[in-house]
Amino acid sequence: VQLQASGGGLVQAGGSLRLSCAASGKISGVNARGWYRQAPGKEREWVALIINNGITNYEDSVKGRFAISRDIAKNTWYLQMNSLKPEDTAVYFCYAKTNYDKLYWGQGTQVTVSS
User: Which residues of the chain register pLDDT less than 50?
Assistant: First the structure.
């Protein structure tokens, strides 16, 4: 199974982007889907997740600005990013986690926010 992330780009501060992550097939035992990001020179940091019952959680700096959602029929999840800031600039990676803590990763999509 492969995860394909898309939707990144260059946007001005205050703008919006919507990232998508499409899974190529069914992943058995998935209990969470989400996003990480990695800024230049920094470690990868967790951004958001949505678990199977629809409950979501966010890293503090993106709360109120980002929203994660999913389309089960399309096997796809999304990250709507509003009020973007230059510090949101990073490569964004989608992931899926199974009940056995196995992680599947997407290839990353670049988000650049200009000031």
Answer: none
pLDDT for res 27: 85
Within its chain, how far is the Cα of 6 from the centroid? 10
Q: Give the H or E element holding residue 78.
A: strand 76-81
41's CB contacts (< 8 A; 6+ apart) are none
**Order of strands, sheet of 66-71, starting from the edge strand that comes earlier in the sequence:** 3-6, 17-23, 76-81, 66-71
60/105 Cα distance (integer angstroms): 22
pLDDT per residue over 70-97, tens digit each? 998 999 999 999 999 999 999 999 999 9
Contact 93, 77 (CB under 8 A): no
- Token pair, residue 11, equals 């946007």
What CA–CA distance (Å, rounded) separates 104 from 62? Answer: 23
